[in-house]
């Protein structure tokens, strides 16, 4: 214990590098991040629920010309739901313990942008001529999720 008192502030910061956010506004920031994370999770659940409970309609909205079976779409939906739960609970653990927040928030930004890019590719390949109001709604939900996760990342980085 005596050696700990002789460490400088920089040395303590280096030893506690896993502790991500150490501002005086941590409680307020933690609430904002939790709220955004919760809303992003709800948006993911809305999209997945639509894919599960109405796979034929979702298939026609997104893949207008494809004759793919709806079983594949439901499997994809369950996979996305599992990944959403996993990311949500890992993020909650990191937020609760103030550990590895920067890494997890960066991973979230990468994941959300990758999903957005995959959605955009489907719309570009399918052609925007059949771009419906429902497809626009799903795209707006994805953009809103991008905003929420990116705002969390920027708040953590400050």
TrEMBL record:
Name of this protein: Uncharacterized protein
Domain of life the protein comes from: Bacteria
Taxonomic lineage from the root: Bacteria, Pseudomonadati, Pseudomonadota, Gammaproteobacteria, Cellvibrionales
Stretches that traverse the bilayer: 33-53, 73-95, 135-154
Organism: gamma proteobacterium HTCC2207
Record's keyword terms, sorted: Membrane, Transmembrane, Transmembrane helix
């Amino acid at each position: 214990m005596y050696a700990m008192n002789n460490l400088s502030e920089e040395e303590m910061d280096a030893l506690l590098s896993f502790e991500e956010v150490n501002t005086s506004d941590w409680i307020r920031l933690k609430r904002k991040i939790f709220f955004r994370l919760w809303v992003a999770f709800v948006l993911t659940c809305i999209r997945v629920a639509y894919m599960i409970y109405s796979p034929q309609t979702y298939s026609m909205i997104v893949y207008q010309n494809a004759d793919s079976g709806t079983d594949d779409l439901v499997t994809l939906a369950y996979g996305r739901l599992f990944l959403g739960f996993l990311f949500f609970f890992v993020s909650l653990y990191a937020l609760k313990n103030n550990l590895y927040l920067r890494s997890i928030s960066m991973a979230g930004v990468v994941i959300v942008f990758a999903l957005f890019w995959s959605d955009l590719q489907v719309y570009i390949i399918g052609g925007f001529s059949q771009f419906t109001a429902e497809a626009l709604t799903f795209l707006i939900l994805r953009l809103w999720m991008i905003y929420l996760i990116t705002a969390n990342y920027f708040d953590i980085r400050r």
